[in-house]
Specification:
Distance between the termini: 13 Å
Oligomer: single chain
CATH topology of the largest domain: Outer membrane efflux proteins (OEP)
Helix content: 55-70%
Radius of gyration: 38 Å
Number of strands: 6
Structural class: alpha+beta
Low-confidence stretches: 1-32, 36-43
Order of helices and strands: HHEHHEEHHEHEEHH
CATH class of the largest domain: Mainly Alpha
Mean pLDDT: 83
Number of domains: 2
Strand order of the largest sheet: 2-3-5-6
Number of helices: 9
Strand content: 5-15%
């Protein structure tokens, strides 16, 4: 949704001289010029939302978290595909009677213990690792979407603050010129000094409001730079969203679904891992009965099988079952939440569009009224107070229209966000 240039409507209020100036400066160039004045640079350009999002993603903390989850998932896959349930261990033993009978009896033994998988444990771990890989991808997509929401919100905040600044500065310029005109008429004896005091007070108030609007715009630009690292400012317009997306295709829904699946796989894994892993040991033994007697060598095989479930395994199973219950509830609630968010966002777009239509009509009526009262004031048929009130009402209407245009654009962006669409 594209925001109409505010300067077109301001032409109705401030006459042909303002129109000539507005025709020389497009909204985009005016945005850049104002921001350049704020930041001390004249080389600023507008960037698309996609460019801004890509720049923000390179700086995002969530990007590092998502990449860390992906690395963890890869490590789990490597462990699951290993032939052993754990790292092998080396066993060394030696025995001698040197400190007792000293007959030369010696026994030396070396062995390797190999942890083995329990029945069904390796397949359960592989299944869990595969789901974990999809979960890490979903977490990456979810993190990107959340960041896109931050970029959109910040971009439209700048757009709204810039619209307010344009209105405030044009109002201040008009009232300054009006105050000068009233002063000349006071000197000519056409108006009382009280009229000039009223006009000058309005001019000073408008100047203060313009400075306040400029400060708020600077704060919004600072937040934008912190988020994206860009000196360029955003072109917040995007294609209009196409209706309401399906909740089950949303990245957040995919993340909840894979989290639920992962929790189920973790229960299966914990159920097959209640016992400690058996160990298969291969040993080589050398016996020397006494000095001068040839050594006797042998090879042995042994297996160690734990009896009964370990306390750690039982605890892990209970924890996995609790996590599965939570994940199932979260998935169900997440689908409902995403569906309601999308419908609410679509309704907000419709309301914002109706509000924008009303604000445009209101601004048009009040600017025309202010123009008529200005002509009447110049002819001496209307007092200055009527003109000031009419101009104030027209300015408020134009400001309201500008805010509503930004609100309509933000509502459209939020609908895209609710649909799970990236810039």
């Amino acid at each position: 949704m594209k925001t109409k240039p505010i300067s077109i409507f301001l032409c109705l209020v401030w006459g042909a001289s303002f129109c000539a100036h507005a025709q020389q400066k497009s909204p985009a160039s005016g945005f850049v010029d104002d921001a350049a004045t704020l930041t001390g640079s004249r080389s600023l350009k507008l960037v698309s939302m996609r460019q801004a999002f890509d720049a923000a993603w390179q700086r995002a903390v969530s990007r590092g978290e998502a990449e860390g989850l992906e690395s963890r998932s890869k490590s789990e896959r490597d462990v699951a595909t290993n032939l052993l349930a754990g790292p092998p261990s080396l066993e060394l033993s030696s025995r001698t009677d040197r400190w007792h009978d000293a007959t030369g009896n010696r026994e030396n033994e070396i062995g390797v213990a190999l942890p083995t998988w329990l029945p069904g444990q390796r397949s359960a771990r592989i299944a869990s690792a595969q789901v974990g890989a999809r979960l890490s991808d979903a977490a990456m997509a979810s993190s990107r979407l959340r960041l896109a929401g931050e970029v959109r919100e910040t971009a439209w905040a700048i757009s709204a603050q810039h619209a307010e600044l344009e209105v405030a500065e044009d109002q201040a310029a008009y009232l300054k010129q009006l105050s000068a005109d009233v002063l000349r008429r006071v000197d000519a004896g056409d108006l009382a000094r009280s009229d000039w005091l009223a006009a000058e007070a309005e001019s000073l108030g408008a100047s203060a409001a313009a400075l306040d609007a400029r400060t708020r715009l600077q704060l919004a630009i600072s937040r934008w730079k912190l988020l994206t690292g860009l000196d360029a400012l955003p072109d917040a317009t995007e294609n209009a969203p196409m209706g309401v997306g399906k909740a089950d295709q949303h990245p957040e829904a995919a993340l909840a679904l894979f989290a639920q699946d992962r929790a189920k796989r973790q229960v299966d894994l914990a159920a097959t891992s209640k016992w400690d892993a058996p160990e298969l040991a291969l040993k080589f033994r050398e016996d020397i009965p006494a000095t001068g007697i040839p050594a006797q060598r042998s090879v042995g095989i042994s297996i160690r099988i734990p009896l009964g479930a370990s306390e750690r395994g039982t605890t892990q199973l209970a924890e996995a079952q609790a996590n599965r219950t939570v994940a199932e509830l979260h998935f169900s609630r997440e689908q409902d939440r995403l569906r309601e968010e999308a419908l609410t966002a679509k309704l907000a777009v419709e309301i914002a569009q109706r509000g924008l239509t009303a604000e445009r009509a209101r601004a048009s009526h009040l600017t025309e009224r202010a123009s008529l009262i200005e002509k009447s004031f110049k002819l001496g048929e209307s007092p200055l107070t009527d003109l000031l009130r009419a101009k104030s009402a027209a300015t408020q209407a134009i400001s309201g229209r500008a805010k509503q245009e930004a609100a309509a654009g933000l509502a459209s962006a939020r609908l895209r966000q609710a649909n799970g669409e990236l810039p």
